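Record format v2
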Amino acid sequence: MTALAHRPLGGRVVTKPFLILGLFLLIAAFFILRRFVFGMGDVSHMNNGYPLGTWVILDVVIGTAFGCGGFAMALVIYIFNKKEYHPLMRPALLGGLFGYTLAGLAVMIDLGRYWNAFNLLMPWHMNFNAVIFEVALCVMAYITVLWIEFSPAFLERMKPDVKQRYRLDRVHAFLKRYMYVFIALGVLLPMMHQSSLGTVLLILGYKLSPLWNTLWLPFLFVTSALAMGFGVVMMEATIVQRAFKRPSEAALLGSLSRFAAGLLAVFLVVRWVDVAYRGHLGLAFAGDWNGNLFLIETALFLVPLVIFLSRHRFTQRWQFLGAICLLAGGSLYRFSAYMLAVRPGNGWTYFPSAPELLITVGIIGLEIMLFLLFFKTLPVLADHTAEPHGRPS
Amino acid sequence: MSMSRRQFLQGTAGAVTAAAVAPVNDALAFGKREPLPLPPKAIGMLYDSTQCIGCRACVVACKEANDKPVEQPQALANWNEGTWDAAKDISGQTLNVIRLYQNGTMAQKDREIDGYAFIKRHCLHCVDPSCVSVCPVSAMRKDPLTGVVTHYPDACIGCRYCVYGCPFNVPQYQFLGPFGKIAKCEMCSHLLAKNPLFSGGADALAQADTSATDLWRQGQIPACCDVCPTGASLFGWVADLQAEAERRLAAQPGEMHEFACGWPGSDRPGHVAPIAEYQPHLYGEKESGGTQVLYLSGVPHEKLGLPVLPDYSYAAVSEGVQHTIYKGMIAPLALFGGLVFLARRNVKGEDEGKNNEDQPS
């Protein structure tokens, strides 16, 4: 491989879209303030039948799956040694950085007794039987790893004399030398907590429909998270290419889609064989809420599988459609497993309130704003003047 | 071409996974963590729905004992405000509630069709509690001797995973107000602490004779059982309560029976009444790995909102899976070693071929 350099896009940061997103962020900030002054019940419709609402499920469970781009690309580039995908690495890492960091922020809004959150780190409070404890610790560690993995982008941007004055050149050299350790952690940690996000649901027992509740939950969650990681890289690369009129990466993304296709095939086969093996296939075709959800999820996973295995995978439109369906399928799968297919009984129902959703919208808006800021001011995107292009396989 | 490739992929994957799914599912029985035993000095309650008259004295006593405000439906909030309680279910402010099952004409008590029945809702103090298993900061604890499940708000981070995971929907987060807590029945642990039996420390309790029912007299028992006029709510050692439940189930319907009030063998006058037609099942003996609150009923238990549960706790399933994956951290560490090796080799190979301006990220 030839050298790969990154370059900031440049251009004005405060643009019209940036300001509109900022407005949504302000609205969210207002309701976040209300949540802390008047309590969660003031802004949210969460209740004791559905104690986990959109904040946990959209922002954390689905949000971190959207943040798996860095995980997926690190696996392909540094573990499978497929160097041709290198131009996709840093933007994917940035997606993971924001996906996970803002999920952490959402957790702090969602925790009912956030001032005790440090108890998670106190050895005498730790409960190693609790799956959510593993998730919490592992996600905290991964956020740290992501910032370390991304830190060279900041260091490259600094003036050499500034770096020297604060001894940051040494930090830079250290990071360069031992980055492989953080890369390995950056693959291991998501495998751990993304699978645990599935294990978490085993406690629901009868409350969760058998179409979702299976001992395969950890496996299904980690494979779908990884597939979503590829999906998010494809979606993000396409949008950035269109928005900033950069040369097309469709050929590279077309070959990348094979990994997603493989994961989707394994996911679908394991899921269906497991449901059939446990004798619940009838539920899938019952024509009711749960059965239809299961079928819609399958359809959303089948569309990208078919596209990514056909020649259309090299066409940008089809590629994008595949990525969108893959992300929608993965999100719906998580939404169903955490809420839509959960029946706590006792007549409990839940539908998110507008303020609750606006907080989530604001957080997503903040994520896009940060994306724009970082793309324009930091060396994130590969410098395409020196960039080698992927080849169709 | 693409079709054949897909078929090939799916065919192979199908064969491989079919071979893999079966053994994992078969291993379910072995995948579970060992069930937890009933604690040696387990205390609990026996609620007999057929003896409950729905007076709700227990609900009022619970509110008083636990210092909880009354709850009124919003539509009637201005009517004699704060003087009457109409909690529909347990909540952040209600730890114990009596609910009504009704069907058709409601002509006869404790009959499923055209009948009605009462049910007392509060924590069942599971032998193998999900809430204790899922709490990341050990804010839910089960007493190793008495088995009472208590909550520690100073440890609690408010993640509400105990609410999510409880098979009975018992722990309730106080969503109203900025400093909400998890609320649940703690078997009036603060009253029991005044009983010399429990205030004498763990060693004294471990030595105590479990048949020493007269010891209850010296102290206080949970408020709901203390005030129950018919003995429908009975407090005691779980072993005694189980034996009493077996006696009732074995007796002929219509036979007169003296229902103890407070606790089995108490000095209070009992309540003499005919034995009802019970469902031949003591709920809580096996459900979810056993519970320390037991239920007798004339109508099927699931009609009263007590779910049909397997004889193991879901906590045993989730802990079994988690501890299989993370056993001794061997699998994650081995994986980490492999990843470090590959990443190091591949990053190095990359550095050798190019100038020093490139970053491995």
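Residues 15-49+357-365 of chain A form one domain.
The first strand of chain A starts at residue 6 and ends at 7.
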